[in-house]
What does this fold into?
Amino acid sequence: MMEEQIQYTGKATMEKITSLAKRRGFVFQSSEIYGGQNGAWDYGPLGIELKNRLSQAWWKEMTQLHDDIVGLDAAILMHPRTWEASGHVENFTDPLVDCKKCKSRFRADQIPEKNVNEKICPDCGGELTDVRKFNLMFKTQIGAAEDTANLIYLRPETAQGIYVNYKNVVQSSRMKIPFGIAQIGKAFRNEIVTRNFIFRTCEFEQMEMQFFVKPGTDEEWYNEWRKRRWAYYEKLGLKMDHFRWRQHQKDEMAHYAKDAWDIEYLFPMGWRELEGIHNRTDYDLNRHSEYSGKDMQYIDQESNERFIPYIVETSAGLTRNLLMALCDAYDEEEVENETRTVMRFHPLIAPITVAVLPLMKKDGLAELAQDIRKELMADFATDYDHGGAIGRRYRRQDEAGTPFCITIDYETKEDHSVTLRYRDSMEQIRIPRAELTEYIRKAIKEYKRQ
Ligand code: GAP
It folds into this structure.
């Protein structure tokens, strides 16, 4: 865990990532045919696979591998009192300034202080408005009548769905403190500035885990969860010198936090928050107790002690993790006088694990390849491609990040052997068809990034 300052030396740029994402079907602009919708993105065939792999990896890590964490899927629409209790109605604001001349909108904390103080637009030099607080929650109405009585918010974080259900979970699943509740789901924020592709968007997904502990043990658990979350990213085979910790200063801490550390990632545009780990104390449960009138105390069955639990939160952006995974995997190298673009995803998160490619379409090779693909389908995410020269097809799979390609040729018909080509080294080996599944399984398990 370090505070190392390194400069970005990766091959990715945001332009290259955005262009590859569109070209290969990872991410598309929302409603593109109408000129696009700011702050919203669509995930294409490869993108949804990558997103699913990332959420499955997180879910496995946070639930299956812990006997003291259970899952939940709460509704996006919650009773509006939830957001009064949580403090979001009052505090979930960004400082906003507008340019009276060019109509640009800025977050006052993201432009030079001099511009804010002297009210000068950093883009056109026009006059800026006074700074005003802008609440990031999207408001809408529920029901037929459009009046304030029907006001409802789109949740700006998934966490509150867990807090309001914590007693239901204790009662129904007999969880005993310390224990956690994990959830993955959409969140919405009316961000003033959406920039850098899918980094900061108005609609996004979060992977959050709330760990309920006895007051007084919170700092110990907080440190434990910081360690665990760091170890998680190590397991995904990412470039760990692109990760660092950053502690929030008192004046930037969220209204609920006693301590907050971000895991930051070195994106092409610089170090940015990837995940936040927060000690939220008993703030949220106390507030829900106060606003709902319901007792949110936990009763220890053995000691009969009653207390409002403290909460340690780990909160990662799923869509932001996807951007991180794209940037982390992106590589270019010179091969035979041309640039090979290769996405070096860990096989556990690669959208396609195995591609099956017949050398030729004719002489029954295509049918044989389809047969082999069918065999592999039950165990792996597969693709099949018979279009164009084999070298071109390898390059296409490299761009999709497919770690293994299986090539079927005339020898396959004779001796039932196939060629397995590794994405990273481009090494090719010959193996018996009957051993393919076991071979690939082992290669995934033993995968080490080069
Ligand atoms: N429940 C705590 C919470 O929401 P946060 O630091 O505001 O904390 C947690 O958000 C994570 O959610 C961030 O680290 C980031 O990965 C992701 N996130 C937040 N706002 C986002 C946005 N506008 N677009 C994409 N991801 C976002």
In short: Residues 157, 159, 189, 191, 200-201, 204, 206, 208, 273-276, 313, 315-317, 319-320 surround glycyl-adenosine-5'-phosphate (CB under 6 Å). The chain is about 30% helix and 25% strand. The longest helix spans residues 45-64.
